[in-house]
Amino acid sequence: MKSTIEFRKDIVSGDWVLISTDTQKKPVFFKKVESKPLPKSKCPFDDIKKSRQEKILLWIPRPGGKNLKDWWIQIFPNKYPVVASSRICPPLEKCGIHSKKTGVGFQEVIVTRSHEKHFGLMTKSEIELIIEAYQSRFQALSAELCVDYILIIHNHGSRAGATVPHPHSQIFAIPIIPPDVRRSLDGSRKYFQENKKCVHCAILKSELKEKNRIIYQNKHFVVLAPYASRVSYEIRIFPKFHEPRFEAIDQTQRNDLADTLKIILSEIFKTLQNPDYNMFIHTAPPKERNVEHYHWHLEILPRLATWGGLELGAGIDVVKISPEETAKLLRK
To answer: Where does the record place the Galactose-1-phosphate uridyl transferase N-terminal domain (predicted)?
Structure first.
């Protein structure tokens, strides 16, 4: 494998990352500590009734199912939310030289039926139902007066922050635009103002021509390893046709998105031996107008390394495998 050591600048955010493949040669003296999985008998998500969920917001039967007995997905409020559920819009408060808002919002859990069947093992039809559930709750939460942003996340494994091993996703609806999303929006807007075109469309055009970092594509979506990856084996999924809003995709697009997720998460599971990872959707804020410059996308970040002093002290991510090698390894 060719050695790569270079700083790369993310064209959207302007952030720099360091691609340094030589660090793979470094010996590792610490053994990986594996946590024992929670037994199915003690899992709060394996039997929703036993976990005493007070309110089921949405349920969807498994493919071919017709009633709650055949449920594949159930969605309910998180029992231990990081935000306080409230429909009262928090005012901006001054605190000396600082500013703050009360931490209100909505946090929901999206649970799939099987205790062991994570994304990498699901069928395309099962994944498509999850995407449908994401959209349904996104649209419902968009109507809430105080919600400025909705973030859909999926944490797989303890290193990715999952406290319950049973496969589940979460939706956060909050009264602020998260910093990472704001940087992405600002970078996209700046590029559009300077070049009169979408930065992500420009990236896709370049990547599809060059092909070095393309992993998979179908009619509506492209899977690639981003040029300025922030972590080893980072993956992004973009719609081929310009669209600012995830919630706007139709059934045909949902089918193709399920296809890409099935392909790439199965490949990650097999090739990287079921790594922990974070997956999330970046889309335009539901109430923000003039966002035609933006291009929604889905990001997958495997958690294979621990940050050291350079990452924390300088804010420069060190990536140990080049995006080109990532694409070659994961390409179907």
So the answer is: 11-178
